[in-house]
Amino acid sequence: MRNDLFASIDMGTNSFKLLIVQANPSGRFLPLLNLKEPSILGRGSSSSSSSIISDQSRLLSLHSLKKFNEVIRTHHVPIHHTRCVATASVRAAENQIQFVESVKETVGLEVEVLSGEQEARLAYLGVLQFLPLFEKLVLNVDIGGGSTEFVIGKRGEIAFSCSLKLGHVTLTQKFGDHGENGTEKVLKMREYIRMVIKESGLSQKVKESGFEISVGSSGTIRAIEKAIFCGYAGEFVDKEVLFRECKKEWRFTKEDLRKVVDRLCSGEKREKIRRNGFFKRRSESIVAGAVLLEEIFELLGIEEMDVSGYGLGVGVISETLAKVFDGYNFNANARWCSVMQLATRFDENKRMSTAVLCAGIARDIFEGLRTCDEPVDNDFRLAVPLDHKDLEYLEAACLLHNVGLFLGEKGYHKQSYSIIMNGNHLCGYSAEEVKFMALLTRYHRKKFPKIDHGSFMEFQEKVKQKFEILSAIIRISIALQRIGCTNHEDLEFSHSAEGFKLVFSVLSFLEKKGKKNHLSECDKHSRTFCCQEYLRKLILMLRSIIEEEKEAGNIGLSILHI
């Protein structure tokens, strides 16, 4: 089992989500895996305060949860590091107890049915891991499929929380999609939202408590922010323009929101086609979500809103971390937050997953390499010691190495360097640290630089030596990730008088992959040859560089045997 791995399952109204992260007491999160399965728990639940989870919904839910549980076992996440929570639809279900028992008996997962207030609190804790707002009085809004949660908190403590039965799915069911008589439906929806909020007393309570900053933490709000960022209200903005004018903050104003809502509610046939193309599966309920958010802005006096890439799922894991690590602080690692924000801003989900896998492999190699600092019979050590900050630079470079693909494949490593250096995105790092990470992304491919190159003149000799080691690690990590290595068990580490040895058995790896994907013997041997050739080319290049440095007495590193 991996004691640094944690998992959460969020059983939402519109989808089930699995999150697996690698985390440590410092508060540095590395989201290793995000999976989402469509859910129909919220269907037909808008007509009353309670509902029944149908047999069809139950069976589909069990199927999704079985898949998630298998993934959790495959990743060796300890059972006491795993939590499964359910929200509005299960909370309101008349057969809630039977459903929860069915999950326990069939899948083996204990389901925690969260109250609205608990859900609101956990969403706030998730926000604190993405945005450095620990010292701020924060109003967090989380729009779900079946309910919307509100919380006001500071320093991880809750001053006020509230859950209202206003969700983008249930509102869409109640008032229909934005088709025929769309304008009339939207007006009725607005009236209903205002009535529910006013009757709850939410506006008065928020006014009495006050807040310094408002944050949105749900998928609906993130989708609206993305639409604003991409210029959805007008004509879509060219990627070159987005790159040049990129906002550092994930933030939008009341006026930005109004323009998107107006566009979504225009009622034109071509707008529905455009909406479906941009919002995809979320398009059927995005009008309700956007209208709901606009009414929340108006009734709660919100002028602008920051957006968090993390929400309930990370909040659940944060609470688990507080139980596992003594003295764990919910205060976000602000430096690391800025890395995650930049990576998430420019990387699509698939590219982000690739970058995360690369970072995981790099971490394993780094930790294996650090064993060279542990005395053995020959007392061999690296010429320059590596510390926790070097690991942070390495992981950051892995997460950011392909952000330049946002502008296309040609020379993307140079674009990645430019984005990091010129955008003032990485807060809390010194100028030298930013440049160091940017150079790691710049030289993760193509020609390896000479250390006497002008780019390295400002660095001390020790830092230059570290760069060579970390650059070798990131190149190997990317190569291993590309051929499908996703598990640290596929790697073996050792060191001796000759140096450090990393062994990756391509054939053993493909044997396991072949069983899973039913590869024929011919396919396995063909892929083995391709993998070996790919790695050999990389190794020859790295070996020539590192042997030169060894002869000069700079590095004690031997790479690598297959």
Automatic annotation (TrEMBL):
Gene3D superfamilies: 3.30.420.40, Exopolyphosphatase. Domain 2, Hypothetical protein af1432. Residues 62-322 form the Ppx/GppA phosphatase N-terminal domain. InterPro entries: ATPase_NBD, GppA/Ppx_hydrolase, Ppx_GppA_C, Ppx_GppA_N. GO terms for molecular function: pyrophosphatase activity. Residues 337-502 form the Ppx/GppA phosphatase C-terminal domain. It holds the Pfam family Ppx-GppA_III. SUPFAM superfamilies: Actin-like ATPase domain, HD-domain/PDEase-like. This is Ppx/GppA phosphatase domain-containing protein. It comes from Rubroshorea leprosula.
